[in-house]
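Intended use. Records such as the TRAP transporter small permease protein entry shown here are meant for training and evaluating sequence-to-structure methods. They are not intended to support clinical decisions.
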Amino acid sequence: MKRPNDFIFRALAVIASLSLAGLSLLVIYSVVMRYVFSDAPDFVEPIALLLVIVIAMFGAALKVREGGHIGLDSLVKSLPEKGQLAAHTFQHLCLIALAVAIFFGSLQMAETTLHDKIPILGLPEALRYVIPVIASVCIALFSFENLLTLFAKKHK
């Protein structure tokens, strides 16, 4: 499971990095066009919103893989070894449950908005919800990998 997740992790990192770079360039372009040429382009805002969704959702998945998500480390570190294992297990099970909820909620929204169009861009509105669907699958995979790693360490 580690090797496929390594590939997914690298792909998400590249996509999120390119999205961040693209967002930065888009904002600079928009500011220059608006304040220097008094001609604000209409397409910047919907593209920027899509890029922000990619950065936020894929970034969250990347942090789950790295173990950098929000946690109560000071509390967990003060627990005995079995308590730490239980806390980490609970944490990853909660992340998997959250990923499942995001998956089904976003999938339902994507199906509902499939025939609607994003104004100005003309792309399907469902695109906004496909991004969290992909990210939720990655979050679940990474959390499951972390669970397997936890229990593999325990049995050594």
